[in-house]
Amino acid sequence: MLKDMEGILASFEVDFYIVGAIARDFHLSAKDGTDSIRKTDDVDLAIMLDDAGQFNMIKDTLLASGNFTADATEHIKLYYKGALEVDLIPFGKIESANGYVYLQPPNIFTLNMPGFKEIYPFVQEVSFAEGLSVKVCSVEGIVILKLIAYNDRPSRTKDISDIEHIIRVYFELSDEDIYEGHFDVMELYPVERGDYLQLVSARVIGRKMQVILKESDELRTLITSILKKRYEDWAVAILTGLGD
Predict the structure, then answer these.
(1) Which of 107, 149, 196, 214 has the smallest C-beta neighbourhood within 10 Å, fewest atoms?
(2) Residues 6+ apart with CB under 8 A from 221
(3) Shared domain check, 116 and 6
């Protein structure tokens, strides 16, 4: 699916990156024992676009290829070969001054998807088989998007569960980076605590989120307000990392 998608998007000179559960699972599969606690077959792609007209042309081209079919109710949703669900999430110049994306015709479809533009400069280029190379959202970007998703729909407790799982395995995934670039954090918490490594990890995640959010005071304020509403120690650690 990515090969077919990449070829068409490249013809429009449009860049994209993988977000959502596939990006999460890619990072968590890096080492044995850190895999996600739940799986998905859905694919979310953040696509950098100029305007709604460009989105519609790309969608029409994907449908004309014969590999993709449209969803009857959601303008951004497609199905690859009748089975794989794919969401095309537009960001970039297509966003209005208030951060909304308006897609039309035939009907007005409105999106408010903050964070994708700020995360884009920090995505990771990944090479797969058969010459395919795509960009994947960073782990810290995933945490940002999941905090926003949870804030929009608090009933989506799976977003908090995903964040907590990421924090539990983050040290194992990023130990070299923590030792080399954030060793001071390991001296900020008592090692006898049962959640010592999680607190270290959450603090480092907060520091890296700080770099992503530095260009948007509005987004940083949103993330800060979400974390301040959480009672868990990991949320406090992330928030502290944002202020380091």
Answers:
(1) 107
(2) none
(3) yes
Q: In which domain, by residue range, is 149 found? A: 142-243
Q: Which tens digits make up the pLDDT trace of 86-139?
A: 999 999 999 988 788 988 766 677 888 899 999 999 999 988 777 888 999 999
- Residue 147 and residue 51 share a domain: no
Q: Which residue has the tokens 């190379």?
A: 133
**Contact status, residue 87 vs residue 43, Cβ threshold 8 Å:** yes
Q: How far apart are CA 3 and CA 8, in angstroms?
A: 9
**How many domains is the chain built from?**
2
SS3 165: helix
Domain co-membership, 153 together with 94? no
How far apart (Å, rounded) are the C-alpha atoms in residues 65 and 11?
13
The token duo for 92 is: 């970039």
Considering the entire predicted model, what is its pTM? 0.93
Least Cα distance to 46 among 156, 174, 144, 167 occurs for: 144
CATH number, residue 54: 3.30.460
Contact (CB, 8 A) for 46 and 53:
no
Q: For residues 103-141, b (16+ Cβ closer than 10 Å) or e, as one string? A: beeeeebebebbbbbbbbeebbeeeeeeeeebbbbbbbb
Kindly report, residue by residue over 7-56, the tens digit of the pLDDT.
999 999 999 999 998 998 889 886 665 565 566 668 999 999 999 999 99
DSSP string covering 189-216, please? S-TTSTTHHHHHHHHHHHHHHHHHHTT-
